[in-house]
């Protein structure tokens, strides 16, 4: 059967980072630390720089994250706006084929189910996630945080977002020269390469 999961990179992972009460400055510090260690040291580095015991979540934190997003939308030169809108510099492979876009995306979201709940927000970002057996839906977005916020009503209704590609896939690979931070079901993962398959419940994501 198909394994139920969601995963995100770039802007998507950053939203989860903020939802857990972590700061832009701490994210930058962790990113710098990750580039200096080998794969076996990723989790140790993050636990040292951003301990889980300091994490927060829930409705209040979701509201704060939403406020931060609106703040970014209204202050184009602010650090938080630059944080959310930084391109994800990585190669994207769908079913083994390198997919070339005119620019790097700002966020990627992948799931094998349609709905996603974050605090008091409930939306349907990937309405075709279970459209085909053995496949997942991949959202590759080039939208800025300002455009994402404006698209929230559409996302809530399961409508497509502007400046975003939606692709059905049985395998997704993301590869970069830098160590990337992603999230899988709310847990952070780290690596230079990720491969995700929806039909491998015990090993649906591999990291290098």
Structure notes:
- The protein has 208 residues and is of the alpha+beta class.
- 30% of the residues lie in helices and 29% in strands.
- The strands form two sheets. Strands 1, 2, 3, 4, 7, 8, 9, 10 and 11 form a nine-stranded antiparallel sheet that branches.
- β9 (172-184) and β10 form a beta hairpin.
- α2 runs antiparallel to α3.
- The longest helix has 16 residues, at 59-74.
- The relative contact order is 0.21.
Report the order of strands and helices.
Answer: EHHHHHEEEEEEHHEEEE
Give the termini separation. 26 Å
Give the CA-based shape. globular
Given helix and strand content, the structural type is alpha+beta
Report the mean per-residue pLDDT as an integer.
84
Radius of gyration: 16 Å
Hey, roughly how much beta strand do the residues contain?
25-35%
Main sheet properties? 9 strands, antiparallel
| Secondary structure tally: strands | 11
The total of helices stands at 7
Report low-confidence residues grouped into runs of 5 or more. Answer: none
Helix content: 25-40%
């Amino acid at each position: 059967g198909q394994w139920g999961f969601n995963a995100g990179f770039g802007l998507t992972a950053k939203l989860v980072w903020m939802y857990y009460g972590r700061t832009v400055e701490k994210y930058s510090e962790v990113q710098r630390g990750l580039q200096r260690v080998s794969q076996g040291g990723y989790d140790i580095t993050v636990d040292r720089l951003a301990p889980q015991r300091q994490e927060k979540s829930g409705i209040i934190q979701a509201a704060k994250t939403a406020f931060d997003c609106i703040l970014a939308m209204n202050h184009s030169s602010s650090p938080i706006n630059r944080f959310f809108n930084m391109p994800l510099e990585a190669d994207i492979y769908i079913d083994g084929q390198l997919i070339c876009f005119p620019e790097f995306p700002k966020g990627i979201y992948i799931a094998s189910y349609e709905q996603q709940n974050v605090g008091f927000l409930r939306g349907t970002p990937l309405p075709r996630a279970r459209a085909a057996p053995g496949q997942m839906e991949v959202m590759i977005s080039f939208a800025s945080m300002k455009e994402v916020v404006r698209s929230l009503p559409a996302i809530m209704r399961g409508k497509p977002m502007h400046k975003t590609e939606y692709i059905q896939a049985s395998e997704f690979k993301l590869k970069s020269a830098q160590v990337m931070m992603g999230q899988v079901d709310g847990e952070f993962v780290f690596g230079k390469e990720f491969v995700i398959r929806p039909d491998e419940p015990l090993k649906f994501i591999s990291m290098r």
